[in-house]
Amino acid sequence: MSAAGWFQFGALVFVVLVTAPLLGRHVASVYGGGTAFGDRVFLPVERLVYRVCRVDPDKEQRWTVYAFSVLSFSLVCFMGLYLLQRLQGVLPLNPTHRPAVPENVSFSAAVSFMTNTNWQAYAGEATMSHLTQMAGLTVQNFVSASAGMAVMVALIRGLARRRASTLGNFWVDLTRGVLRILLPLAFVVAIVLISQGVIQNFHGFRIAQTLQGGSQAIPGGPGASQVAIKQLGTNGGGFFDMNSAHPMENATSISNFVQTWAIVIIPFALAFTYGRMIGDRRQGRAVFAIMGTVMLVMSCGSMFAEGHGNPRLDALNVDQSISTDQAGGGYLEGKETRFGTAASGLWAAATTGTSNGSVNSMHDSSTPLGGGIALTHMMLGEISPGGVGVGLNGMLILVILSVFIAGLMVGRTPEYLGKKIQAAEIKLIMLYLLAMPTVLLGFAAASAVLSGPLESLSNPGAHGLSEILYAFTSAANNNGSAFAGLDSATDWYTITQGLAMLVGRFMLIIPVLAIAGSMARKSAVPASAGTLPTHTPLFGALVVGVVLVVAGLTFLPALALGPILEQLSL
Predict the structure, then answer these.
(1) pLDDT the model gives residue 326
(2) Disulfide engineering: 435 pairs with which of 36, 272, 507, 560, CB 3.0-4.6 Å?
(3) Residue 221, φ and ψ in degrees, nearest 5
């Protein structure tokens, strides 16, 4: 990799290390119940929202009520977005005269954006009106991310509280997440993106005359406002079909760097939020270190894979001046020349390590090793650093599982933060761990043998299987990125992926809230000489090992038939 690539990677690490603790402290103050930055501005707005929605902000909820609130809110969001798409042809703010979105695509998009997946079986500028983009998709980018953070906060409260029956109020947590965290950050990022050339207007298509005497349709629309929150909320759905590879969504190397930072900053910051809210910052730093270690390995692996390219092209003595990226030595197939291989590999690691799914290059054109790393990164459960809120949930679930395994190894009752880990919690953890692989591997297996789904493939053999695996891995992990060689706009894929998104969202949220409710009711026991320290490098290594073993035992056979076989065939 070139010096410029290493500099970009080092700059991102430095900026995250500086900004994540600061943002984490702010998020902790927002959800902590005391005074927080911006109270004079935000408290009156919050009170107005509570009054209009008839919410009592002082009334807390049991985990069952909290879960019902999440589910009911999500159902309303799904129905509203579905109807908006179906009616967009007769609604205003439609300068490009987009007709109603087809039923199956409307269903897929509504489920996708409601679950924070943002899988797009459509071309953005050719399918959605400006009203649908703004009032439908962008709004869901805010509220689905805030709902994920609300569940995270409920889990933290469950771990921190003693002999309590409530976890907070979902409606208050949802409101505070949108108003105090996501909106201010998105406003600042959108301004930066506009300064770099990302479009923000209400125009339709404008016809420009080319130098050759032809014409070209130049799209317009409110792009920067959606791009900012799609990255910060780890949503990922693009305003344009080409997502962040489109020059009007991602115009310069500066906008590319800012968007890469925006993808990972909130998930990393939430580790520090966790440490502050439980009153032990060492725990937060330990979680941050685990997330960062896995992310570091995946990023370097992805950049290395794309920087070295395909050895078959070297063997064929192709013209290096055309086929390779001179700055880094890697092949530019499917990548933007203004970013190069290093920035594309780094973005791929960031977008698959979170539940983001946006792309600045075509993952289907990645090397088998590079595509396999992106696929594996999602299969880990998107915990490094994971999506906004849900990534920390997944990491804490694996931390509790690691504590339980360590307790079995030394022959004592496992404890985490002074609370005993018992059979009820482990059963819920098993439900959490089995839900995603069940739908992923089940639907992928059916798609690999049924004649109808196989017709959607543009590539046979190992790469075709990788395309199928990537589609359902992305859906079940609420990621949203894709291998473009698979036609997912068919009834089979829109329905099965929609079901995978629902399972990947709610069959993980419900066990998390149940675990939070169970842990909140427990009393803490004092630490003793036999208590396992959960903030040390040794424990961090144990957690990483558990992550690799769980994912390896589950997915290695499928990976061996897909990207691993394809890489070995080179």
Answers:
(1) 41
(2) 507
(3) 140, 170
The answer to whether the predicted template modeling score (pTM) of the entire model surpasses 0.70 is: yes
* 388: its two tokens: 């906004």
Tally: H helices and E strands in the chain: 23, 4
Q: Are 128 and 108 spatial neighbours (Cβ–Cβ below 8 Å)?
A: no
Q: How far is CA 556 from the centre of its chain?
A: 22
Contact 297, 353 (CB under 8 A): no
Q: What is the pLDDT of residue 316?
A: 57
CA 147, CA 509: separation in Å to the nearest integer? 10
* 267 to 41, 263, 272, 342, 472: CA distances (angstroms): 25, 8, 10, 22, 23
3-state secondary structure 92-131: CCCCCCCCCCCHHHHHHHHHHHHCCCCCCCCCHHHHCCHH
**What single-letter DSSP state applies at residue 255?**
H
Q: At what angle do helices 340-353 and 368-379 cross, to 10 degrees?
A: 20
- Residues of the chain falling short of pLDDT 70: 1, 312-331
Q: To which residue do tokens 């990621």 refer? A: 479
DSSP letter assigned to residue 212: T
Report the amino acid identity of residue 277: M
The 10 Å Cβ neighbour count of residue 3 is 10
**Strands 206-209, 215-218: parallel, antiparallel or unpaired by DSSP?**
antiparallel
Q: Is 327 exposed, middle or buried (0-12, 13-18, 19+ CB in 10 A)?
A: middle
Look at the chain and count its residues: 570
CA 434 to chain centre: 19
Residue type, 251: A
CB 471 within 8 A of CB 512: no
Residue with tokens 């396992």: 532
- For the packed helices 368-379 and 281-308, what is the interaxial angle rounded to 10 degrees? 160
Q: How far is CA 37 from the centre of its chain?
A: 27
List phi, psi (to 5°) of 420. Answer: -75, 135
Residue 303 structure tokens: 């950049």
Q: Which tokens sit at 109?
A: 């998009």
Angstrom distance (rounded) from CA 380 to CA 388: 16
pLDDT of amino acid 207: 87
The whole-number pLDDT of residue 206 equals 87
Residue 486 phi, psi (nearest 5): -105, 125
CB distance 546 to 296 below 8 Å: no
Residues 6+ apart with CB under 8 A from 551: 376, 379, 380, 381
Long-range pairs for 200-208 at CB < 8 Å and ≥24 separation? Answer: 200/224, 200/225, 202/93, 202/95, 202/130, 203/95, 204/95, 204/96, 204/97, 205/96
Helix (H, G, I), strand (E, B) or coil at 70: helix
